[in-house]
Specification:
The complex is a heterodimer.
Chain A: E1 4-7, E2 10-14, E3 19-25, E4 32-38, E5 45-51, E6 56-59, E7 62-67, E8 72-77, E9 86-92, E10 100-101, E11 105-110
Parallel strand pairs in A: 2-11
Antiparallel strand pairs in A: 1-3, 3-8, 4-5, 4-9, 6-7, 7-8, 9-10, 9-11
Chain B: E1 5-7, E2 10-13, E3 19-24, E4 31-38, E5 42-50, E6 53-57, E7 64-68, E8 74-78, E9 87-94, E10 104-105, E11 109-113
Parallel strand pairs in B: 2-11
Antiparallel strand pairs in B: 1-3, 3-8, 4-5, 4-9, 5-6, 7-8, 9-10, 9-11
The chains are: A mainly beta, B mainly beta.
Chain lengths: 111, 114
Amino acid sequence: GENVEQHPSTLSVQEGDSAVIKCTYSDSASNYFPWYKQELGKGPQLIIDIRSNVGEKKDQRIAVTLNKTAKHFSLHITETQPEDSAVYFCAASSGNEKLTFGTGTRLTIIP
Amino acid sequence: KAGVTQTPRYLIKTRGQQVTLSCSPISGHRSVSWYQQTPGQGLQFLFEYFSETQRNKGNFPGRFSGRQFSNSRSEMNVSTLELGDSALYLCASSLEGAAWETQYFGPGTRLLVL
């Protein structure tokens, strides 16, 4: 089955700087890669996703890049703000397979 | 639209007991998936229900079971609880359950087994 590795497990950045979280996946058939943000006491919430026919996608301060050859994808958050502090999960799926999640990155924005 | 709701939010049980958790999906969503979240194992897929049928199952023992009702509400049951079952149990709903559909998560039920 699919295996998703996520790094780093914790990340602290100064407010206003950029944050990058990286994931690798094992199943070359995977074609859908969402990113979720989980705040304390809440369930994960989708923030951005990308499909395998696209190399990059942006939504305001958030962007995701996908390298199918290397089987890795990354989340980029620019101009970080205190409300970006949360745990972020990457995930991957292919066809009818359900989502396989990474182990999460705890992002802390330092004011 | 109301989001995914889960009840109860917190639960304390002792080893050997059983527990039933409930999930109400977003109106119009027919697929409900359940996940177990623990610090050590992260988010792990339990099972998915669509139109009252279990369509996918993760790698969990038979003590974990679920069902879905005609109104798409779902319940999961854990029998003979073990200490290791302590976790946050999340349910997520989507329209048809396709792998590429956005899954909307509820706030979870935090289960503590003593």
